[in-house]
Amino acid sequence: MSDDFTQRATELVEAGRFLYQRGMVPATSGNFSAKLDDGTLAVTVSGRHKGKLAVADIMRVNDKGESLDGRRPSAETLLHVQIYSRTNARSVLHPHSVNATLLSKLTTGHLVLQDYELLKAFPGVDTHECRVTVPIFNNDQNIGRLADQVDTYMTVQPEPVFGYLINGHGFYTWGENIESALRHVEAFEFLFECEMRIRGKSK
Amino acid sequence: MSDDFTQRATELVEAGRFLYQRGMVPATSGNFSAKLDDGTLAVTVSGRHKGKLAVADIMRVNDKGESLDGRRPSAETLLHVQIYSRTNARSVLHPHSVNATLLSKLTTGHLVLQDYELLKAFPGVDTHECRVTVPIFNNDQNIGRLADQVDTYMTVQPEPVFGYLINGHGFYTWGENIESALRHVEAFEFLFECEMRIRGKSK
Amino acid sequence: MSDDFTQRATELVEAGRFLYQRGMVPATSGNFSAKLDDGTLAVTVSGRHKGKLAVADIMRVNDKGESLDGRRPSAETLLHVQIYSRTNARSVLHPHSVNATLLSKLTTGHLVLQDYELLKAFPGVDTHECRVTVPIFNNDQNIGRLADQVDTYMTVQPEPVFGYLINGHGFYTWGENIESALRHVEAFEFLFECEMRIRGKSK
Amino acid sequence: MSDDFTQRATELVEAGRFLYQRGMVPATSGNFSAKLDDGTLAVTVSGRHKGKLAVADIMRVNDKGESLDGRRPSAETLLHVQIYSRTNARSVLHPHSVNATLLSKLTTGHLVLQDYELLKAFPGVDTHECRVTVPIFNNDQNIGRLADQVDTYMTVQPEPVFGYLINGHGFYTWGENIESALRHVEAFEFLFECEMRIRGKSK
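Output (structure tokens, whole complex):
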């Protein structure tokens, strides 16, 4: 294995432990990936406990998401591939939190986040006085079809996309490295918790 | 003690520590068991602190739930026995979480879980587009009578049962080994939290 | 110092660390005590960080709550003294949780807990089909006067009392040793969380 | 570096780890400072992960908030400077919790806290029967202008101020040392959680 692979895989293992301890990848849900220098991807093997990953639970796929070692990658690898194809992301994380799941079920079409200082955690955002739109896609067991929907959205949408929700199914976010992707997970989770808890409360 | 017993008992001790840290077995509540190769059961001794179990706090009962060493097993051992008699479970876990307790008090008859990706954590479920029914039984200090009610439900019910609630009294779930049973605990707890928190929130 | 004092003090230090980690004694709030074999009390010194106690932060008072070493005990020591005078308690714990604080503000007079299996955590309760009444006293900076109110209640009340709330001020519970008192803290905290979260939710 | 700087910086690093573990400084949000014996300030460098600070992530600024080592301090350093100029604080902490963020969005003008025993955590408060007013300022990316608003409030307001909220942006509090400031963070966070969770609940 290349040093590059081992380093990224080690970081994904640590990210898994962190997200599991926060309750964001229960019951083997969620999946993670990082782009390697040669353009292939390091991605979680399907079905593993995300809080107890070892480097051996990370595998390589090519830029079409096809296995390079005979093992089966996470079922949603094509969603990772789509994100790498449209952004400059070097890591994609898919946590599966209660807040994200609930918001995706309560909201139709997209979620608008505004007037939060924490929006400045996203690249290029330098004021709370902006609107960040988070699209919500219908869940689909046909991942290729779901990836096409995301791709169409990203092509049509003029503003930057920092992440998206899938109905009843958690969220996707990414960054220029694993550390940045984790920062975006933290920011979204904070904002999703705010949005969930403020619902039904009056001024 | 057989190696089989010691290994299962060690896993139950670890499961207890894990579930206690998550707040799912407070104040000595809850109980756990595993089926051994000879058909007898390893089960928690009555009244122990579930976050501080030692192997000595796990005892053996026969397939009718009768003590094999003179000590008193958890009061609800007959519920474990019933589950082993009707399913291919090798481990049964009974956590006592706030979410499960509240849902059981707010819901009459049964809970229906649907449109959650996490339903795929249960064996044989391969799409979010299914309905998982969780029956809710009335609490009863006569455990034999309660076990009979569960048994009747499982006999009559055509679809697979992955777990059940008892009113004001937590939930039961199981799996082909302790790891699988824990995965089902995580999945149910996530789904119960979703169902509790979404109540009273409007789209 | 006697062995008895050192052992009880060590247990109170550990109880403090546990309760602090659970968020139940924030900002130096709360206080703890244990009865020693000679009838004197080991009690927390006033104003200490309850998650970072050392044995040196535990002092002795006599059975009237008067300091035996010149230091100042927790301001609410007289409430501990009252409990020891009316019950067979050997330890009294006063956590200051959010759930207890909120319930005490939302409820007038007393709280009734029923139809919870976890009620069996309290001594002598062997079925969920009972009613446990938790009185709620008005907060008062005159602790002697507050202790008198509790004493009157315990004298008049025919049923066993397992704990009480003070308005805006957490709860008191006790047990035949520190381990039992902690079990009652866990049970009350679980039940208070249930009662708080079920409020406003409809069947 | 002076011993004084190293000691305060070490305490700020520890405070960061503590507040991060409690979810109060997600995604590099928040900032911390301490006043040194020579009147200069030790303050967090801009943009650092607050749960993984090292002493090298703490820098010095003068009493106007100007960098003394060429690095860029946290964007909100002028808010710290203002607090030191008007109070006897030796440490200022700015956590960014969900509870504080939500309350600031739901409340107009100021928040009144009363009938909580925990109010006694603030200096000079010796009874729950007092009113603590927490002003809420509009968020502003112009930190100098925001600091002026806070300064005007503190000049005009006759009663002691223990902390304030910024809309959608967490809270500021302070103390005569880092330990005291942390105690005030704990007290405010507890009270903010109470205020958030009691909203919409009826007696």
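The beta strands of chain A are 31-35, 41-44, 58-61, 91-94, 110-114, 131-137, 163-166, 171-175.
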